[in-house]
Amino acid sequence: MLDFLKGPLEAIQDFYLLAGRALRNIARKPHYTDDIKIQMDSIGVGSIPIVLLTGFFSGAVMALQMGRALQQYGQTGRTGTVVSIILVRELGPVLTSLMVAGRNASGIASELGSMKVTEQIDAMRALGTDPEQKLVTPRMIATAVMLPCLTVIDDFVGMLGGWLIGKLVYDLDWLQYWSQAWRALDWTDVIQGLLKPFVFSFVVSLIGCFYGLKASGGTQGVGKATTQAMVAASVTILILNLFMGLIFVKYTGN
Amino acid sequence: MRSDKSLLWFDSVKVSFGDVDALDGICFNVREGETRIVMGAAGSGKTVMLKTAMGLNRASAGKVTLLGEDITHKPENDLFAIRSKVGMLFQESALFDSMTIAQNVAYPLLNQQGERMPREKMEEAVRDSLRFVELEHTMLKYPSELSGGMRRRVAIARAVVTKPALLLYDSPTAGLDPITAHTIMALIVKERDVDNTTALVVTHRYQDGNLVANFRYNSSSGRLDPCADAAENTIFMVLKEGRLVFEGKQSELEASKDSYISKFVKRPEKSGI
């Protein structure tokens, strides 16, 4: 009767087992440091342009709308506060993670998926290397290091975009904007703003790897794995974001 | 050359995928110095057999012993060390397409667990291995820049770079023209005679087995010469729907009256090699 649940439950179990092995591999030899560096470059440095663009335009549009709303109460001067709080706590981590998920969860899934269907994963095993240690763990570590860094860049560029709109549309004083933005932030905001992308990084890398390694059935299978990875990673990020937000609101009052 | 030392032993091995039995009750023993030619129709379980020999597929019943170790229920992590002593050529070459040819061949040396050899020695081994397949000039190219036959030769170089005791070739000549197929088979014979390796060659072409059984690599002329001795150490196996229906020498195979087995036998052409 509950047979329809078997597939999804098995997939969840396999995902947790993969995550467990990937984490355990951090402590196991051999360590593929070169692969970590390559992935940091590809996932981190490669994502900078897209993060700059999303950060700038999301900050700018937020300042535009918030400035108008605050204008009704004669509080345009507080635009910096609103922009920085929303960016650092919510939009920065979520937008950056969604962008990196779109770019890298799908990228990882298609790369590993193609390797799987062309027997390259089996070849790796046959040549005496653990594909999870060689492919999954370096991607997981690289994303965990780079996603918080990208979020910081996104936050800063977003504030910059907000300031530009504040200056051009609402004629805000730059010192007022930046001091408001700076003073609005608490340590808990910074912790929240960095912890979220750290947690989301595992979602991006491990879901990408999971669907990639599970791919079967030729090129069509690779395409399917890519789409599934992106959708699953994005949805998981949005759900986790709400829960993490709730926890922070409950325990820190912010 | 042939000794009684067993390198690979299948004891009543059964491999199932869901309700389908890909292999059923397979028993054979590969001794050092032997070359086994495995023939069978598509879907008869040839590739599954090779993958099971490496522990890439697991036996659902029976026992697989590789290089003296029972690998049937060994955890994946313990298998890497044993696998690195065996060379395997995949059907579609399975070269890593993001790496150059030199990096592909160096891969087993660079990434195996345990001691790593010094850099100069590694470069020399990679060069030697590529020279063996006469593709030394392609070191900096990527697999996509090579033809299908060349890719297969690179895959042979990658399989032999660690000087494995046992080599498993999965359809090395599939989808190749007769001339390239002959080049690949000549390399397999050369590898057997230069490094004295034991091999399991999966193929559906009888002439491949015939070449292995009747020719020997002549290192001074660089050509293959007819040689009757090779037949002694060449054993043919025929698979049918997951079962082993024949195991024996070439003469026994040719004498078989079984309609399925005799379909694989083509009268050998002793000339023109």
Q: What's the quick description here?
A:
Chain A is mostly helical and 254 residues long.
Overview of the structural elements:
The complex is a heterodimer of chains A (about 250) and B (about 270). Chain A is mostly helical. Chain A has one domain. Chain A is built from nine helices and no strands. In chain A, helix 4 runs antiparallel to helix 6 and helix 4 packs parallel to helix 8. The longest helix of chain A has about 40 residues. The mean pLDDT of chain A is about 90. Chain B has a domain of about 180 residues: P-loop containing nucleotide triphosphate hydrolases (Rossmann fold, 3-Layer(aba) Sandwich). In chain B, helix 3 runs parallel beside helix 5, helix 4 crosses helix 5 and helix 5 runs parallel beside helix 6. In chain B, about 45% of the residues are buried. Classes of the chains: A mainly alpha (about 250), B alpha/beta (about 270). At the A-B interface, helix 5 of A face helix 2 and helix 3 of B.
The H-and-E topology of chain B, N to C, reads as EEEHEEHEHHHEHEHEEEEHH
The helicity of chain B comes to 25-40%
Secondary structural class of chain A: mainly alpha
Topology pattern of chain A, helix = H, strand = E: HHHHHHHHH
CATH class of the domain at 6-85 and 164-262 in chain B: Alpha Beta
CATH architecture assignment of the domain at 6-85 and 164-262 in chain B:
3-Layer(aba) Sandwich
Physical arrangement of strands within the biggest beta sheet of chain B: 6-7-8-3-11-12
SSE layout and pairing:
The complex is a heterodimer of chains A (254) and B (273).
Chain A: H1 3-24, H2 33-44, H3 48-71, H4 79-117, H5 120-126, H6 131-170, H7 174-184, H8 187-214, H9 218-252
Helix pairs in contact in A: 1-6, 2-6, 3-4, 3-6, 4-6, 4-7, 4-8, 4-9, 6-7, 6-8, 8-9
Chain B: E1 6-17, E2 20-31, E3 35-40, H1 46-53, E4 61-66, E5 69-70, H2 76-83, E6 86-89, H3 101-111, H4 119-132, H5 148-160, E7 166-170, H6 178-195, E8 198-202, H7 206-214, E9 215-218, E10 223-226, E11 234-240, E12 243-248, H8 250-255, H9 259-262
Parallel strand pairs in B: 3-8, 3-11, 6-7, 7-8
Antiparallel strand pairs in B: 1-2, 1-4, 4-5, 9-10, 11-12
